[in-house]
Amino acid sequence: MSTPEPDTDLRDGKDVLPRLLRVAQHLSEQKDVPRLMDALLREARFLCKADTGWVWLYRDNHQGEGLFCLASPEPGMAVRETPALFRPLDGSGLVEACFADGEPLTVVLADRPVPEADAALLEQLAPGCLATQLWPLYNHEGRVTGVMQLAYQSEVPRHLQRLENGHLIFQSLLTYAGTALSNLTQVQDLKGLLDAFIKVLAQAIDAKSPHTSAHCQRVPVITELLAQAACDDQDQFADFSLDEDGWYELHVAAWLHDCGKLATPDSVLDKSTKLHTLHDRIDEVASRFAVLRAEICFRYERECLQTPHLEPSLRERMEQEISDLTGDLTFLERINRGGEAMAMEDQQRVRNIAARRWTDAWGQSKPLLTDNEVENLCIPRGTLTPEERQIINGHMDVTLDMLGSLPFPPKLRQVPEYAGGHHEKMDGTGFPLGLKREQMSIPARIMAIADVFEALTAKERPYKTPLKLSEALAIMQRMRDNDHLDPDLYQLFIHSRVWREYGEKHLDPVQLDVDDGAGFL
User: Fold this and answer.
1) Most buried of 274, 436, 451, 469, CB within 10 angstroms?
2) How far apart are alpha carbons 52 and 149 in whole angstroms?
3) Is 101 helix (H, G, I), strand (E, B) or coil?
4) Model confidence at 163: pLDDT above 70
5) Quick check: 505 and 246 in contact, CB under 8 A?
């Protein structure tokens, strides 16, 4: 089928070629599909003297395989998707025919009746339409990916009445637009795939340990809230801003900041108590205490048979020994949780308990606690030994190795630096690189604050109760004073009330015990 020749503006105007070149450049600059189609329709209406127009794009989604419409809700407004105008490919309308045949189609309504669906569409989008024209959009592979439809509501232009071959410039414009659409769609599809992969990876990390669940999903929330506050600030951060690419770079880094935890052994990552390995060994310790209790009772009964007249004093001794034994076991169970700082006298008590002997099933006498159990139970704070802490810290080295091995494009080149800096401290005592404040970017310092705040207020950590806002902010204030957190960003964190905004959405009401952060500046 031949195609309609364009309006005389295409043939006779000496400024047509420069205009088309500007149009081609304008189309290539668009970063999302609606704006690209808006630019295309604007030029197509000008060149063809059409009154209005819209675009149908191919999609295979939950509604099925078909064409969805991008149209202006009102004249002069930018186009946007109109889900109600979805057209399945098995329809018999003009749009489906143009898409299937890949040929332009012109219909003058006075000369040819149109299918009911098309008549209703024209009545909705172009009341009083006299003629409609449909052009297929091709991608770089020569495959039809959509249809542009123009409508004429006044006198039908002459060129609609005659099909000629003088349409090459206009068809070239459509081909360029179709290729630009294909490229943009592929970029968006790949970006969507990357986003989905990043989030699946973060979910896998969170699922790996129920004790850090949702950490990888919450840190990006705090990070982006504080980054937005920095962009809005016109004082300390007047020179800081993020464009669309910068926001996406920060988004990717925040979601991937703990990817190295995939290599951390579960026995360390899930160590919820001091004696936890594959299971909590406090039960094994309790079994030995049960053996000692049985030995105390057996000795009492044997001595009562030998010296019945001493039974009252023997009973008193037995009850005291059992009471002491119960007290020691209760003490070990408490310190095993690791939720508080452990005093030196408590560490000595553990060693004293370990010196007691018990008899195993083979009749061998052994210490009540092994050396490894003593070492773990005497951990001063938390549940990790120095060696295990080093293993945990090693996830940052793995994170840097993993992210450093990825061929990030220039727009994402700083992802490793942002993600790899959330355990650094402003005085250079952090890890893995021991960077100081001046060696870190603002986004990396933002992520350090986000990571600390989420960890302090997290509700899933079994070795501690969720901290209230007052407790978390007091700890962060001390970290600021000790030059561990960036002082300017910490001040912005408090002033902008990021802590409160996050807390109202992600913390339990009982944790929200602070409404004014002035006391933590």
Assistant:
1) 274
2) 9
3) helix
4) no
5) no
